[in-house]
Specification:
This protein is of the alpha/beta class. The chain has helices at 32-39, 53-68, 92-99, 116-129, 153-156, 215-237, 254-263, 275-278, 285-295; strands at residues 2-13, 17-20, 43-46, 77-81, 106-110, 135-143, 161-173, 181-189, 197-199, 211-213, 246-249, 304-311, 315-322. It folds into two domains: 2-173, 3-Layer(aba) Sandwich (Peroxisomal Thiolase, Chain A, domain 1), CATH 3.40.47; 181-322, Thiolase/Chalcone synthase (Peroxisomal Thiolase, Chain A, domain 1, 3-Layer(aba) Sandwich), CATH 3.40.47. The strands form four sheets. The protein has a five-stranded mixed sheet, with helices on both faces. The chain has a four-stranded mixed sheet with strand order 8-13-12-11, sandwiched between helices. Strand 12 and strand 13 (315-322) form a beta hairpin. Helix 6 (215-237) runs parallel beside helix 7 (254-263). The chain is globular. It starts with a strand and ends with a strand. 54% of the residues are buried. It binds oxa(dethia)-CoA. The site of oxa(dethia)-CoA has 20 residues, from helix 1, helix 5, helix 6 and strand 12. Residues 30, 34-35, 38-39, 114, 153-154, 157, 215-216, 218-219, 222, 252-253, 256, 280, 310-311 line the site of oxa(dethia)-CoA.
Length: 323
């Protein structure tokens, strides 16, 4: 018997406040045409009022639970991928646990920046296949609007806020690529590249800090590393690009998404794209794209997906799963 971590529910939350590219014009030296042509981004959502990473994560989790027909009492573990937890500690995941009214199970955060959801999904899969948990909520949630330097045109126009969640359940499979659920994972990091993308604050500075990025340097690494990790994950799953129904990439830049699809020999018709509406939501981007892709009718039960991401660290990875 092979245990598989199968998606039984997906959900997302986007703040009501939508900020179009044009709103940056006049505040910094940029324009809609530059942002669209260099990144593919047209608008993004920003939190307002009392919204935080944990409140958005809870809303996404409730949507995933509702779709699965489950309650918080059915959940054994919550793994929340985020680099923008409400506080330094406790984890945002335990805040979600409390907001869901759970007195059961355990919860923790995973921090691998934009690749965080891939790392969280891989950890959730490990908990399930090792028999430590039967149902795991895997969430990606971010409030990058809180770490933007609004005077820096090279970063402030790129990021957005939001959350997405999957509910995974242990189910028996046959051990073949025909099984539903996570079929393989591939995780990587290389800390030598820390200066390419980081936040210049934390306990060592006593400030929250602002995101700093050498965008064109990150770009150089992205297509190559994303295609390579996706290929490794497909090899491990025993599938090829011909078998893939949908690529669900991290939504940082349409040109990276197009370049990676091309390298994988996959058509853009097979790629779920949300970057135009969400901007780069870091660890939230993949679960947002999965949930929106399902809502649009693109991703259907039984479809074979490859999902990949890269971000600060550098950290990058991929997961192959059958929906
Ligand atoms: O999610 C985590 C991983 N992050 C990523 O994957 C991001 C990867 N990088 C990127 O997506 C792209 O590198 C960017 C969208 C960030 C930038 O695009 P680019 O084509 O690499 O542009 P660039 O950084 O090489 O900048 C080109 C020019 C520069 O001007 P000069 O030096 O050529 O005169 C920039 O100063 O564009 C200028 N520029 C802008 N102009 C108008 C930078 N930001 C802006 C802006 N508006 N907002």
């Amino acid at each position: 018997m092979t245990l598989r971590a199968v998606v039984i529910g997906a959900g997302h939350y986007l703040p009501e406040r939508v900020v179009e590219n044009a709103e940056f014009e006049g505040k910094i030296d940029t324009d809609d045409a530059w942002i669209r042509s260099r990144s593919g981004i047209e608008r993004r959502h920003f939190v307002s009022g009392d919204e935080t990473t944990s409140t958005m994560a809870t809303a996404a989790a409730l949507a995933a639970l509702a779709q699965a027909g489950k309650t918080p009492a059915d959940v054994d573990a919550i793994i929340l991928a985020t680099s923008t937890a409400d506080l330094t500690f406790p984890s945002a995941a335990t805040m979600v646990q409390a907001q869901l009214g759970m007195e059961n199970g355990f919860a923790f955060d995973v921090q691998a920046v934009c690749a965080g959801f891939i790392f969280a999904l891989s950890n959730a899969n490990a908990l399930i296949v090792s028999g430590q948990a039967k149902r795991v909520l895997v969430i990606g949630a971010e409030t990058f609007s809180k770490i933007m330097d609004w005077t820096d045109r090279s970063t402030s126009v790129l990021f957005g806020d939001g959350a997405g969640a999957l509910l995974l359940e242990a189910q028996e499979g046959t051990g073949t690529p025909e099984d539903r659920g996570v079929l393989s994972t591939d995780l990587n990091s290389d800390g030598r590249y820390r200066d390419l993308l980081y936040v210049d604050g934390g306990v060592s500075t006593g400030t929250t800090g602002y995101l700093r990025m050498q965008g064109n340097q990150v770009f150089r690494h992205a297509v190559e590393k994303l295609a390579s990790t996706a290929t490794t994950a497909m090899d491990r799953a025993g599938v090829t690009a011909d078998d893939i129904d949908w690529v669900v990439p991290h939504q940082a830049n349409i040109r990276i998404i197009q370049g990676t699809a091309k390298k994988l020999n996959l058509s853009m018709d097979q790629v779920v794209v949300t970057v135009q509406d969400h901007g780069n939501t870091s660890a939230a981007s993949i679960p947002l794209a999965l949930s929106v892709g399902q809502e649009r009718g693109q991703i259907k039960k039984g479809d074979l997906l490859v999902t990949e991401a890269i971000g600060g660290g550098l950290a990058w990875g991929a997961v192959v799963l059958r929906w």
